[in-house]
């Protein structure tokens, strides 16, 4: 069986890397079609995991719109699927590359396996466009690799046949554990590089489309107020390369001495930053999955989450994007709440998700 993995953004690459390595280890025939919906942020991950794409569509343009991205992607992926016949396509998550990769596979009548299937908020505009991307991908996919039982339940409710849903855990935990095991010394060096060993800091990221403009600015104002009132606290914020996000962040925090604004960092460096942080504030999906493993309290800067497992485990709290609410949530972490939220837990996986996916594919296609 000839497999193609289609992905193009930073989080997809992080979550596909361990699966790619596992497929290779098992001598399965697999090629990578990198859409490069992201460029620099994708390349950082490909370099770390030493993955060289077989095809690179180099699709990213500055300030790309969703319709531009969608139309270019479907045409370019289709060309490749016409040149090289694949039997099976693997896509991951809920980006435009994920959805369009599965659509192009459908047009070519190729089976799709969806990694991280079944996440739902049940609000099609939240997160936007990801909730729709993953639902559409789920409609096309033959096999659904769900991270948790909750994700499986969502798919069953939508009428997906149980035999095609496989609960595997999330491959992000495989990636995280791989890096911690194989690159441990580097992580220590990074902590020295950023001189963060003696600083008390909150790690912040924010990039979602539904948060563009006012919501991001509200959060930045809350952070600014908090930093002014708390002498010892800093923030470290690797700011997404999206110019719309950067404008809002720099406008409010650009001149704040204790707000350390940096460009996106390599995955390895980011793990070191998470590990060393006091806690995390984010609207990212992947970071909500990683933080509980590291026992880091996480304030989720969103109105909804498709990852209730971290909230139920008590390590994450959904706080929205209103200035006062965000500020109060930060204050609350000065209390005993901090210790309660710092317990390490692993609701999203045990580091063996890739192995389970590979075992399933082998059994289905080679036995
Ligand atoms: C995309 C995904 C989102 C995911 C996020 C992870 C879609 C619609 N959105 O959002 O689900 O959470 O990636 O980060 O698929 N840029 C660069 N260099 C890069 C990456 C981005 O300059 O390496 C800038 C470009 O100006 C680009 C813009 O960011 O046009 C937006 O990139 P895009 O992939 O469209 O959306 P994201 O907001 O990154
Ligand atoms: N990440 C990284 N460098 C950074 C910020 C985040 O490597 O500067 C990693 C993070 O550990 C997680 C992933 O990128 O694995 C999350 O990506 P992002 O927040 O862009 O996307 P989402 O998960 O929200 O789709």
Automatic annotation (TrEMBL):
Swiss-Prot/TrEMBL keywords: Isomerase
Pfam families named among the record's database cross-references: Epimerase_2 (PF02350)
Entry EC number(s): 5.1.3.14
Entry-linked InterPro entries: UDP_GlcNAc_Epimerase_2_dom (IPR003331), WecB-like (IPR029767)
Domain called UDP-N-acetylglucosamine 2-epimerase: residue spans: 22-362
Entry's Gene Ontology molecular function annotations: UDP-N-acetylglucosamine 2-epimerase activity
Family designation: Belongs to the UDP-N-acetylglucosamine 2-epimerase family.
Protein name: UDP-N-acetylglucosamine 2-epimerase (non-hydrolyzing)
Species in which this protein is naturally found: Petrotoga mobilis (strain DSM 10674 / SJ95)
């Amino acid at each position: 069986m000839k497999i193609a993995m289609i992905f193009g953004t930073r989080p997809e690459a992080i979550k596909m890397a361990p699966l790619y390595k596992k497929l290779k280890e098992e001598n399965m025939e697999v090629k990578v079609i990198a859409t490069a919906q992201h460029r620099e942020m994708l390349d950082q991950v490909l370099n770390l995991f030493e993955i060289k794409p077989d095809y690179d569509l180099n699709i990213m343009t500055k300030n790309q719109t969703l319709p531009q991205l969608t139309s270019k992607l479907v045409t370019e992926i289709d060309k490749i699927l016409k040149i090289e016949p694949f039997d099976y396509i693997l896509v991951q998550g809920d980006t435009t590359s994920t959805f369009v990769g599965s659509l192009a596979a459908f047009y070519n009548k190729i089976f799709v396996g969806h990694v991280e299937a079944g996440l739902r908020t049940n609000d099609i505009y939240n997160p936007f466009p990801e909730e729709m991307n993953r639902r559409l991908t789920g409609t096309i996919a033959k096999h659904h690799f769900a991270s948790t039982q909750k994700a499986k339940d969502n798919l069953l409710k939508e009428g997906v046949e149980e035999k095609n849903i496989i609960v595997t855990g999330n491959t992000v935990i495989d990636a995280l554990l791989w890096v911690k095991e194989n690159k441990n010394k580097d992580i220590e060096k990074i902590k020295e590089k950023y001189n963060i060993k003696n600083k008390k800091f909150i790690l912040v990221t924010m990039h979602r489309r539904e948060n563009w403009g006012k919501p991001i600015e509200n959060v930045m104002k809350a952070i600014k107020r908090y930093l002014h009132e708390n002498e010892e606290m800093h923030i470290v914020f690797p700011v997404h390369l999206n110019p719309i996000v950067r404008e809002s962040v720099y406008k409010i925090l650009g001149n704040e001495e204790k707000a350390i604004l940096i460009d996106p960092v390599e995955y390895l460096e980011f793990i070191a930053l998470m590990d060393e942080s006091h806690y995390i504030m984010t609207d990212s999906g992947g970071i909500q999955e990683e933080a509980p493993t590291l026992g880091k309290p996480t304030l989720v800067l969103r109105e909804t989450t498709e990852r209730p497992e971290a909230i139920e485990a008590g390590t994450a709290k959904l706080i929205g994007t209103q200035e006062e609410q965000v500020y109060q949530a930060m204050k609350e972490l000065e209390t005993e709440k901090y210790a309660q939220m710092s317990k390490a837990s692993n609701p999203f996986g045990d580091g063996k998700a890739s192995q389970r996916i590979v075992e399933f594919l082998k059994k289905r296609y080679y036995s």
